[in-house]
Write a structure and sequence with these properties.
5-stranded parallel beta sheet; alpha/beta; 56% helix; 5 strands
Length: 202
């Protein structure tokens, strides 16, 4: 994955949220020299640009409310975030942690280490996205297994089948109807709920 990040570095779209002072101009210049496409913003916008793949955000304790609004907006999850800090103290570090920053760049901005932080943040973000994708897939699979288990229990009770035969029945019906076993299990559950539902007393 790190190889891909290096290969795609020149196409990386970076949003820099920093005042247009010496550090801000130096940062934009270094990033463009690397080959990245840079969009510089100030004052701080409400949230990340929807096109940004990586955000470099100045983190100042005095602007913590604006920073929290920025990172909690809908677009934050679509980009890796690097915090830019002036000095280290517990208050600033707390805001850095709340931002979910994957790397930190210190001021004054220097070229040394900047590329490493960009690659590190982007790699960690891609790995995190892949982990979330696998987690969602696993959750869906578990939900499917639970539905099949429930459908088996319904068939075992209503049709007097053992567990193996109930499973085979669901699989056979799914194959016949050309749907997944999860969809078949869902149909059985819905049908059972419909048949066992009692009208409310008036």
């Amino acid at each position: 994955m790190s190889t891909n990040v290096l290969r795609d570095l020149r196409d990386l779209r970076i949003q820099v949220v920093h005042p247009p002072d010496d550090d801000g101009r130096s940062l934009v210049e270094h990033l463009r020299r690397i080959g990245c496409t840079v969009d510089a913003n100030w004052p701080m916008p409400d949230g990340p640009s929807p096109n940004a793949q990586l955000v470099m955000l100045v983190v100042d304790y005095e602007q913590r409310d604006l920073i929290r609004r920025f990172v909690k907006s809908e677009g934050q999850a679509s980009a890796a975030l690097i915090a830019i800090v002036d000095y280290e103290n517990s208050a600033t570090l707390q805001v850095v942690l709340e931002c979910g920053a994957l790397a930190v760049v210190e001021k004054p901005i220097r070229p040394f280490g900047l590329l490493t932080n960009v690659i590190l943040a982007r790699t960690l973000w891609l790995e995190r996205q892949e982990m979330h994708r696998k987690l969602r897939k696993l959750e869906n699979k578990i939900a499917g297994v639970q539905k099949i288990q429930r459908a088996k229990a319904i068939l075992m009770q209503s049709q007097a089948l053992n567990e193996e035969d109930a499973y085979k029945t669901i699989r056979q019906q799914a194959m016949t109807k050309r749907i997944s076993m999860e969809e078949m299990a869902n149909a059985i559950i819905n049908a059972n709920e419909l048949l066992t539902a009692r009208p409310r007393a008036t």
